[in-house]
């Protein structure tokens, strides 16, 4: 299963890239995040492997995330024509996923965030989930992006949400 979602954020690309890459900010916008801890490497850097625990509905899902691409490595003074890329592989029980994020300038103070997702499932239950509920994955990705947009633009923290 593959899909791409995108959103415009009313903030400069450099700021968006820095906020997105900073693990200290993850709990503020990544709804359902229970834990994100490096097992090897430096948080958010190329090659880093992390243990990630997410709360989804009434259950927790644990997976391993590996950063497979981060360009540029230094997120300060990014040249205007550059595309910022963050890519990672996520492996959990019955699931493999590749996530490819691209940040481009949509205007002087606006960033376009494109989020490409690819999922492969193994095991009967996960294959069934992927077959019957593909829209759920897309909806969740878009929710994370909307939460990040609210955080980047207005400082909103999903942990303080009352919905």
From TrEMBL:
Protein name listed in UniProt: SRPBCC family protein
InterPro entries: Polyketide_cyclase/dehydratase (IPR019587), START-like_dom_sf (IPR023393)
Stored CDD domains: SRPBCC
């Amino acid at each position: 299963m593959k899909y791409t979602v995108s959103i415009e954020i009313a903030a400069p690309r450099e700021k968006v890239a820095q906020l997105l890459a900073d693990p200290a900010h993850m709990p503020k916008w990544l709804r359902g995040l229970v834990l994100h801890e490096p097992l090897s490497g430096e948080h958010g850097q190329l090659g880093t492997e992390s243990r990630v625990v997410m709360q989804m509905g009434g259950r927790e899902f644990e997976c391993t995330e590996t950063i497979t691409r981060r360009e540029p490595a230094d997120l300060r003074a990014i040249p205007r024509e550059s595309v910022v890329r963050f890519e990672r592989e996520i492996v959990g029980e019955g699931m493999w996923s590749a996530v490819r994020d691209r940040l481009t300038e949509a205007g002087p103070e606006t960033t376009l965030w494109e989020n490409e997702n690819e999922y492969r499932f193994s095991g009967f239950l996960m294959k069934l989930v992927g077959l019957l509920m593909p829209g759920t994955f897309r909806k969740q990705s878009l929710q994370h992006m909307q939460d990040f947009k609210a955080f980047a633009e207005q400082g909103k923290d999903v942990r303080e949400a009352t919905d």
